[in-house]
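Q: Protein A?
A:
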Amino acid sequence: MTEKSIREYDRVADRIRLHRQIDKSPVVIVEGPSDVLLLNRAFPHKWTFFPAGTRLVALQAVRDLNGWGTREFIGVVDRDFDDDVRECEEQGLPILPYENADIEAMLANGKAYSVLLDELGSSEKISKGGGVRAILQATQKAVEPIARLRRANFENQWGLAFDKVDVASKVDPKTLQLKLQPYCAALSATVSHDPAQSLLLDYATGKKTPSHTPSCPHGSEPYYRGRDLLAVTGVALRALAGSCPRNITDAEHLAKVLRLTATAFIYHSKWGSELVEHLQADASDGK
């Protein structure tokens, strides 16, 4: 932990404590501005949102505030593929991670994904492909090897640069299957081929397995990174499920569409109810 990161943590928690001197409304600590936009649209409550910048900073702010005895706040973060969130949950800290690995994965497993496909795709092609459910299952299957590699990367501290590899370019547009050898080769190249692609292939295919398989306590499965799935979805929307141009099927663009679409659903979701209940219960306990 660097001196700079410690100052960042203190700044978020101190900013919230100062804010509380003039505004007693419940506080929701999130990772970034996109979380604020989604949750602010979805929940018509008088909450104050504080984007921390990163998940690490958000979790530390939660620890600080909890240690000071601050009430009526919660941290909303991605679970990802490491153990940080699980450790915070075991400590009883006031956090509510998104279901699955992150916000996009949670939304993709709900109604918002169907709306996204129906709106951007071709009803004829989607029907020919077996329907929305079949396409979702195909995209989920494609990213399962990436999920295994992400966990293995954390456990082995390889430092793989996943964001430098274009997932969509490694997907067969006719079958939506991930081309494992080219993907692992590209991923290995981000760390000067150490580990070698052969070892990554062993993890991708399940020949080798991480010591712990990440999972969602809420039962959202299979477990994956949302933007990985959206990258494959983009490939589907350009061929099997539609005829969209590449510029509107980029994973980042689809993530924005998915979050906007989800506004109508997330409030009434089980996760949304838990968020509301937590903040309301905390407020009642504090009276």
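Q: Protein B?
A:
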Amino acid sequence: MFERLQEAADRQADRLLMRVIHRLAKAETPKGVDIEPLDDGVSLSGSGLKRRMIDDARLRNFGR
């Protein structure tokens, strides 16, 4: 009964998710940190990233 409504809501949620992913992928990051957009989020990579996430506030608050 509500299948069409659910499908429309799912499509809208997917569009919103992709907008957020693309916004995050275009965000400015410190030198040496790369961002890769994925279907369900973004991937950060770089040398010493674990330690840099602790030390650098820009990386700790990346998704906000």
